[in-house]
């Protein structure tokens, strides 16, 4: 079943690259007591994700935080090493937290997977964004296959 507005996020674990190596991030703790702008991309270093999606959130980070977002996070079905390298190469630094969903557990738990086998990607997370307040989905924006419209930072800014 696909997650919906008003639903609590399921309990899962992400991995984040730190100076000391990969670190586990428990979703229940991560989302508790704050507002997070979370967006998912099919893959790090892929064309739309690298040219538009992540750069848009980096560029609009201050505007989003000015509207009450405590943290901006990007997730993808990639490992923490790839997500860390992608964030570093894109200049995400202190603007966007890169959360690896290496086994696709989060994408599966929220019911937002896609089959990228045609492109050699296997099962991945769909392109989407959500505003999460204290672990509850306040807004959910899921893209149609191949689209990049409703999951952008600009669209999210209009929702806040």
Automatic annotation (TrEMBL):
GO CC annotation: cytoplasm
Catalysed reaction, written as an equation: a hydroperoxide + 2 glutathione = an alcohol + glutathione disulfide + H2O
GO molecular-function terms, A-Z: thioredoxin peroxidase activity
Listed Pfam families: Redoxin
InterPro entries in UniProt: PRX5-like, Redoxin, Thioredoxin-like_sf, Thioredoxin_domain
Function as written in the Swiss-Prot or TrEMBL entry: Thiol-specific peroxidase that catalyzes the reduction of hydrogen peroxide and organic hydroperoxides to water and alcohols, respectively. Plays a role in cell protection against oxidative stress by detoxifying peroxides.
Protein name in UniProt: Glutathione-dependent peroxiredoxin
Species of provenance: Sphingobium scionense
């Amino acid at each position: 079943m696909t997650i919906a507005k008003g639903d609590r996020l399921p309990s899962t674990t992400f991995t984040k690259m730190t100076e000391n190596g990969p670190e586990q991030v428990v979703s229940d703790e991560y989302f508790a007591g704050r507002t997070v702008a979370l967006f998912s991309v099919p893959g790090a270093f892929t064309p739309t994700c690298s040219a538009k999606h992540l750069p848009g959130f980096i560029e609009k980070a201050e505007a989003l935080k000015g509207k009450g977002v405590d943290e901006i996070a990007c997730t993808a079905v990639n490992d923490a090493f790839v997500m860390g390298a992608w964030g570093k190469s894109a200049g995400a630094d202190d603007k966007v937290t890169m959360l690896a969903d290496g086994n696709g557990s989060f994408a599966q738990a929220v019911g937002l997977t896609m089959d990228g086998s045609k492109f050699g990607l296997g099962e991945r997370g769909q392109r989407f964004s959500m505003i999460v307040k204290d672990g509850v989905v306040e807004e959910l924006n899921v893209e149609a296959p191949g689209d990049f419209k409703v999951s952008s930072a600009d669209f999210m800014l209009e929702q806040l």
